[in-house]
Amino acid sequence: MIRVVLADDQSVVRAGFRVFLELAGDIEVVGEAVDGPGAVRLARELAPDVVCMDVRMPGGNGLAATREIVAGPGPAPAILVVTTFDLDEYVFGALEAGAGGFVLKDTEPDDLVHAVRRLAAGHGLVDHAVTRRVIAEFARRAPAPDEPAPDPDTPLTPRETEIVQLLARGLSNAEIAAELVVETSTVKSHLGRAMAKIGARDRVQTVVWAYRSGVAAAR
């Protein structure tokens, strides 16, 4: 079973999500929080696989809670930001805080279930309506002045670097394989090793790292 914590200040939203997720059969909602601090507490007490996190909540917002959960001791659950807002500041803030996925509250129930499953399996996900804009914005932004350089003790190989750069352009594994004329399994293997080296939990965080570290150049 995939263990999920819901964090949203609206009880009707939590109730709806609980129904949608538990009807899937392989997902169990193990806790509910009404604010950011509550989400942090439940994430540490219950050790869920995924936290569905609202962005705007009284008493502590979801972005701050996401940062605290990701930075906390021990393995962190995947954070799926679920919000009514698709403004860039929320999308980028969520990803930079360490969220592995971002979907809108008006997403279809099946898509919400799919997102939870993907994150539980270690795959990042961003709502299709904002995916390309997110990548374009990260490509446009220069690395922050205080952004640490890539760790010289864990360098990517030339092939790993090439694959991460293509991933940062928005290509799927199959598209990367076609671009490099290799098998999809080879792409997965190289990408997995690259993610392990940079400490990225999923593809979304790998893209964030690529642009923030300068491995993927702003265009």
TrEMBL record:
The keyword Transcription applies. Gene3D superfamilies: 3.40.50.2300. One of its GO terms (molecular function) is DNA binding. Residues 149-214 form the HTH luxR-type domain. Pfam families: GerE, Response_reg. SUPFAM superfamilies: C-terminal effector domain of the bipartite response regulators, CheY-like. Keywords: DNA-binding, Phosphoprotein, Transcription, Transcription regulation. It comes from the Bacteria. The modification 4-aspartylphosphate is found at residue 54. GO terms for biological process: phosphorelay signal transduction system; regulation of DNA-templated transcription. Residues 3-120 form the Response regulatory domain. This is Two component transcriptional regulator, LuxR family. The lineage of its organism: Bacteria, Bacillati, Actinomycetota, Actinomycetes, Pseudonocardiales.
